[in-house]
Amino acid sequence: MAVGILLVGGFGTRLKPLTDESPKPMLPVAGLPVTEHQILAAKKAGVHTLVLATSYLAEIFTPYFGDGAKWGMKILYAVEKEPLGTGGAIRNAAELLGRDEPVVVFNGDVLSRHSIADQIKFHTDNKADVTLHLIDVEDARAFGCVPTDADGRVTAFLEKMDNPVTNSINAGCYVFSPDVIDKIPLGTVVSVERETFPALVASGRSVFGYKEQSYWLDVGTPAALFKGSRDLVEGDFQAMAGTTIAPDAVITGGTSIGARCTIGAGVHIDDCIIGDDVTIGDGARLSHSFIAHGTAVAAGVQKSAHYLSQKLDLPIIV
To answer: Where is the signal peptide (predicted)?
Structure first.
């Protein structure tokens, strides 16, 4: 068993305009918020208590997730008045947790199918201070590299470089021993990637890399968010409960449609992400577009690569 911290406080600048009205972890992917996909993965791994470390638009999370009973776990909330960085957020959230179990930390904009349970076991078997999930990518130049020795111990944290010494990169899921978190200063802006992890390695602490080459995606841009949704949709489209679709509507491209939507006659939809409680009028044609929760799209509207909500109609890059 373990407890967890989910870092969901970022501004989502790379995802604008999608994040103008919603925090990025609450954007839907295949019908569910990114955060919900992560909660389901945490539950599967035996995480029984999870703290959401929130900041930007923090008030949106609580009405949706409540106390976590719907997911069979306990969900708590740590709200940062000012962003504290990844390390500061972890330390702040840990104040709500005990100190007798491993702490799993998730980055809020990552979809991963790796075995969190196996990562926790690897961590405890090695009596590690911190264990990072590492994956190998074809071209590591856009990422910081994380070389390891033959035993899996991390030997360095390297910034982006033209000739990477390894293709192993930090995949954004960590298992901490509680005493390590307690050494992060409380109420201080700290980056675990740039400060905490390198300092632990330099001081000889046991930082390990758990390597599992499974599905992994950083959904931090509109193009990546759409890809992540398509990847999780089986077939031409997926619709959630309570949605009605006219018999002659044509829906393709791995489109995801939220709950309680109404799709009118003669509608054509391709490669779209559609939120909950959306109405799309007869004859509308939408492609590569994000339709926010509660939006009414008028009959006959034609949009490609747009963000549509009750208030906004803006182009996006997908």
So the answer is: none
